[in-house]
Write a structure and sequence with these properties.
46% helix, Rossmann fold, seven-stranded mixed beta sheet
Length: 275
């Protein structure tokens, strides 16, 4: 098995586990599994929805447009884009457990005719060239063993003029002490994180122009702190193993510390494919 295939398998096994599914669905955000915006709320689900709305606002008029959501989780963003903005969304996600929940929630919302849920990985997309007007991703690409392969695939499936809008936890450009983030690298089972400069350089090389980079690192620290607080407050009512709660709380604290120490970044980035 290649390193990339092994990394994909590790991520799939983790997100398909009962513990991860219970944690993310009950604590992290319900229909969303990404970082939230906390300027007007302390509620994780409301904050997560605000991130979806902020990202959607960068896409312009998307009625009738074809959107691919990379690492779509439970499909919360897809349902917002389909229901409120009139897009047709294809959710691509490697977790069969998350995809089953996505299909159920989508059917309950009456949106199955506008949302497709596909089992697969974003580093080898099962789609034809120039299939989509928009590609989006919410805090998912950090888990890719080969992020350049993901960007290759984004460039392939987007039509010329299409938008790529995404956000991702990243390490700071020019990080002086990579060892300071080693506990995070260990947690995601990868040697590093991407950076703003990495995405800028790699996407430019693939024929994209930068439209906007909105740096929001303070929200990353707030989000992981809130999730940790909620986990510890509700641990007694959740059917999660004690060792899972202990490990998760420690892992979340590493992200809080990384943001506070200036070693991490979080941004919403928008790029347009020129050719």
């Amino acid at each position: 098995m290649s390193d990339t295939a092994a990394g994909v398998a590790v991520a799939r096994d983790y997100y398909d586990s009962d513990e991860a599914d219970g944690f993310y669905s009950a604590i992290w955000g319900g229909e969303d599994i990404h970082i939230g915006l906390y300027d007007t709320t302390s509620d994780i689900r409301e904050a997560s929805r605000q991130t979806v709305d902020r990202l959607a606002g960068k896409l312009g008029d998307i009625a009738g447009r074809r959107v691919v959501d990379l690492g779509s989780g439970y499909g919360g963003a897809a349902r917002v884009l389909a229901r409120e903005h009139g897009a047709h969304v294809t959710c691509l996600n490697l977790s069969t457990v998350e995809n089953e929940r996505n299909r159920r929630l989508t059917a309950e919302a009456g949106l199955s005719d506008r949302i497709d849920v596909v089992d697969g990985s974003y580093d080898d997309m099962p789609f034809a060239d120039a299939s989509f007007d928009i590609a989006m991703s919410q805090d998912a690409i950090l888990h890719a063993p080969d992020r350049r392969a993901v960007l290759d695939e984004v460039a392939r499936v987007l039509r010329p003029g299409g938008l790529f809008a995404f956000h991702d936890p990243m390490q700071a450009d020019g990080l002086q002490d990579p060892g300071a983030l080693q506990p995070i690298y260990d947690r995601i089972h990868l040697p590093d994180l991407a950076s703003v400069d990495f995405y800028r350089r790699e996407l430019t090389a693939r024929g994209f122009e930068e439209v906007e980079t909105e740096l929001l690192t303070h929200q990353l620290g707030r989000h992981y702190a809130r999730v940790r607080e909620e986990l510890l407050a509700r641990a007694g009512e959740l059917d999660l193993p004690d060792d899972f709660v202990t490990r998760m709380a420690a892992g979340l604290e590493h992200w809080v510390e990384g943001a506070a120490n200036g070693n991490l970044r979080w941004a919403i980035m928008t790029y347009r494919k020129l050719r």
